[in-house]
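[Q] Does anyone have a clean structure-token version of this?
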Amino acid sequence: MTFIDRILTIVVTATATSAVWIVAGGTLIENANSASQLETTRPADAAPSPSPSANVGASAGLSETQVAAPLDEMGAMAPAPGSQNSLLVPVLNVRPTDLTDTYSDSRGGGERLHEAIDIMAPKGTTVVAASPGEVEKIFKSDAGGNTIYVRSTDGETIYYYAHLDQYAEGLKEGQRVRRGQRIGTVGSTGNASDEAPHLHFAILQTTPDAEWWEPAHALNPYPMLIGE
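[A] Here you go.
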């Protein structure tokens, strides 16, 4: 066999092999696109996400502690009971169960909300700091009478104590107070009734650079004081 004959044999063999693969490949592609092959040649469609329900965790074999709770907006929360930063009821010998939620009560003939709670106690009862902080302002006003503004250690919360009869001896602005420290006594100064002495206690959410007198967002102290 001459050299030219060998070349022709190689060319013919390569051409025939290519033709076989083209025909076989076309057949496989056609079969893969047929209805009978779709389920085995492509990934299954994604199943829709389940609707949130109480049974989702159970159906997945998860315990209640393993199922994530729905997302919620951030809000004020009571510190863990017993922690150093947890709020104390700011009137001595008053228990959380003795408190009444007066936060949403109307004042001024219905013109405004109370946005604080009134803690009833005999005149002269010790008032203590509900949380640690710094005495930012000692102020006497027509409505609040003898008042104290204590800013939290992070600067983002102001605790407001009003209608005090007296201030604790030596209390001054700029002084740091610890949780539970005596800061004054219950009274009826300002627009409070002499027949119903109490502590007007408010919590105001603010910013570290805001002044004590600037508008701030009021928070309900009641759920924080009772540990909810």
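[Q] Thanks! Anything notable?
[A] The radius of gyration is 37 Å.
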